[in-house]
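User: Second chain of the day. Same drill as before.
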Amino acid sequence: PPEHRVPYAEYGFSDDLTLIGELAWTSEKTDFFGLEFEDDGFSRVKAGARYSIGAWKGTLFSIQPLMTLHLDDAGDDPAATKDGSVDAEIGIVLARNGELFGASIFSVQEAAWRFRDGDRPDQLRADIVLGGNPLPGTMLLLKSLNTASAKSTSTGELYRSSKLSFSVVQDIPASILPGVAVEAGLEQTIAGRSAIHDTIWRAAVWYRF
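Assistant: Same format as last time:
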């Protein structure tokens, strides 16, 4: 299976505006009758922003435009995404926090429409993130990640994918590495149609500044 290295950054440009950037590197090895082939390279670059438009009854509302340029020769979706394909996404984000049994918790809901160039169908995306801090310096994350095509592909396929993800984020003591945390988790496809069913193991390093 391919390995993905995905540096992701968010920068609070102002109280209401957060800048978002991502650059993905994919490495894949294939064994063909004893001959090993390796394909390495950047697979996508993403840039965008999240702008807070206000709060209502404890929920913060934001709009989030994102642009993605695909750089891989062949994508992992049924819509024939390829090098040079562009996605333009506009979404709304709802976030709120609170307490449960004395522990801080939060939730983030995202709903977005993804415009795609060429003959590729547009997509609908709906994600839910639930998080909590059961212990000081420890955060648990549970995510529901859902994508569906808005119409059939050129071959007549309607596709959709639903994944669940769970991970633990642990702060490194500030006396050792201030602002650094490590994440370990698992992402699993639980339902889908004409989509890749996969299992993703995640390891990440966070740096807050």
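The CA atoms of residues 63 and 92 lie 5 Å apart.

User: Great, on to the next one.
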